[in-house]
Amino acid sequence: MSEGRMQTSNVSSIASKDGAYAIEAEGLNVYYEDFLALKDVDLRIERHRVTAIIGPSGCGKSTMLRAFNRMNELFRSARTEGRVLFNGADIYDDQVDPVEVRRRIGMVFQKPNPFPKSIYENVAWGARINGYRGNMDDLVYQALTQAALWDEVKDKLGQSGLSLSGGQQQRLCIARTIATQPDIILMDEPASALDPIATLRIEELMRELIRAYTIIVVTHNMQQAGRVSDYTAFFSLDGTNRAGSLVEYGPTLRIFSNPTNKMTEDYITGRFG
To answer: What global pTM score does this model have?
Structure first.
């Protein structure tokens, strides 16, 4: 990692690495107006591992992901109850700056969304607005290298990020996230819009990145979850009020080979979902 550092907000409570887990949800409820989207979720994410969030459509997977960095707040109708602990601090505390949270817990979206800027500026922009004080050329090089993209773009850094292929654009978005020096990278169906070769490259990249980061990925692809993740959280719909809830969580090998809940087994084997 480059020797330069981001300027941080006056929120010091999320700066350390306190706590046994990368991030924890405790009694988490998320509402959109009066609709309960997530109900009473307790979930502890292991550091430097890939955790997959799986489950049928509408069960709150993406809502859970956005709860980890307060992005649900971008929807006016959303409100959150319970706690999310990051480095020992509740990110929903009034004293915690959500902008700082989103820098420390970055997000890669389903559809590649590079800025209409050069490849270089796509990577540098987030770091720059967060007050990065180091050598920007070094940071761009390191981020693109970590995203396994440097060798493909090193001679065209001035070209538009939109000129890249879909798979390259998604890796550019990953590099953009890495450049802000997060601890956790959230990925919402990061390969669903990509061809099989580009998908495999993203999966390989996730396995490489956990040396430095914790990754939480939402996926509908059971084979992908089985290939890429160390832990799996299965969500489904509550039969009473149709809220999303956590059914089962554990090491991926156990979840896929010997789940303890029949709903998990039925979903993984394709009986519903």
So the answer is: 0.92
Do the beta carbons of residue 167 and residue 197 sit within 8 Å?
yes
The residues with which 52 forms a beta bridge, in sequence order, are: 217, 232
3-state secondary structure of 130: coil
| Domains identified in the chain, total number | 1
Angle of helix 119-129 relative to helix 136-146, nearest 10 degrees? Answer: 110
- CB-based burial of residue 56 (10 Å sphere; 0-12 exposed, 13-18 middle, 19+ buried)? middle
**Whole-number pLDDT of residue 239:** 72
In this structure, which long-range contacts are made by residues 253-256, counting pairs with CB atoms below 8 Å and at least 24 apart in sequence?
A: 256/222, 256/225, 256/226, 256/232
- Is 81 part of any domain? yes
Note down the domain range covering 28.
23-268
Whether 7 maps to a domain, the answer reads: no
Which residue, among 216, 182, 174, 176, has the nearest Cα to 198 in the 3D structure?
174
pLDDT in tens, 196-234: 999 999 999 999 999 999 999 999 999 999 999 999 999
Q: Which regions of the chain does DSSP assign to beta strands (E)?
A: 23-32, 35-45, 50-54, 78-86, 89-90, 105-108, 184-188, 214-218, 231-237, 244-251
Instruction: Indicate whether 255 belongs to any domain.
Output: yes
In 10 A of CB 133, how many CB atoms? 12
For residues 158 and 26, what is the distance between their CA atoms, to the nearest angstrom? Answer: 45
Residue 42 falls within a domain, yes or no? yes
